[in-house]
Specification:
Blueprint: H1 2-7, E1 9-10, E2 13-14, H2 39-42, H3 54-63, H4 68-76, H5 95-106, H6 112-119, H7 121-135, H8 140-145, H9 158-171, H10 177-184, H11 189-202, H12 210-215
Antiparallel strand pairs: 1-2
């Protein structure tokens, strides 16, 4: 790699100046068979470590039409996207395997064994319990119809709050934006922020609606 990237030629053939090289690698601790890169090469590069975070991954999931309950679960349990790989040969949650889980759920595959074989038993168990909560939520339409009196889950049930905020963010439409804000003013502030952010990611047209502008 020293010759093409630094000398910018291969076997005497010059590489066009418009070409930029980006070299990507796993870390040694990822146990992906990485043995290292020679120091003269590293010393001549801008070296950055890319870390995943919940905000960027949720944004990606919503943009790629992943199941909304999976995005809501990730906000509820963000520790799963930074899990260390197990020492034995076994599945574990990463942004890649969580995306695969999302595609399986969208395809109607409900098998716990398949989920566990994709993201590991710990996340599969937690997500199944969270999804059960999701399916038991009150209909978003009922909350939008009576936002001033609809039941608000207590802080002692963060799983229900996270699931409900994800559901409302997914179902809100321009005509129900005002009702959403009326209801959100009755829930904890951090939950308001999470719901509005994901609502805007789902439906960017909502940026222009007075109720959301006033709330912001």
């Amino acid at each position: 790699w020293m010759q093409p990237v630094l000398a910018r030629e291969v076997e005497g053939h010059k590489i066009n100046s418009n070409v930029t090289f980006v070299v990507a690698s796993n870390r040694r601790q990822d146990r992906a068979g990485v043995t290292g890169i020679i120091t003269p090469f590293v010393n001549r590069c801008v070296t950055l470590e890319i870390e995943v975070d919940v905000e960027s991954h949720v944004r990606w999931m919503l943009a790629h039409e992943m199941p909304p309950e999976l995005a809501a679960f990730e906000r509820f349990k963000p520790e799963y996207i930074v899990s260390e790989p197990p020492r034995e040969i076994a599945p574990w949650p990463t942004p890649r395997s969580i995306a695969l889980l999302g595609r399986l759920v969208k395809a109607g595959i409900e098998s716990y064994d398949v989920w566990a074989g994709t993201v590991g038993e710990s996340m599969a168990t937690a997500f199944k319990a969270f999804r059960d909560v999701w399916h038991d939520l009150p209909a978003a339409a009922d909350i939008f119809r009576e936002p001033e009196t609809a039941n608000v889950p207590p802080r002692s049930r963060p799983d229900v709050l996270y699931a409900l905020m994800g559901s409302l963010a997914y179902h809100v439409e321009p005509k129900t934006a005002k009702a959403l804000i009326v209801y959100l003013e009755r829930v904890p502030p951090e939950m308001q922020v999470y719901c509005v952010k994901d609502a805007l990611l789902n439906k960017p047209a909502l940026y222009n609606y007075p109720a959301l502008i006033e709330w912001a």
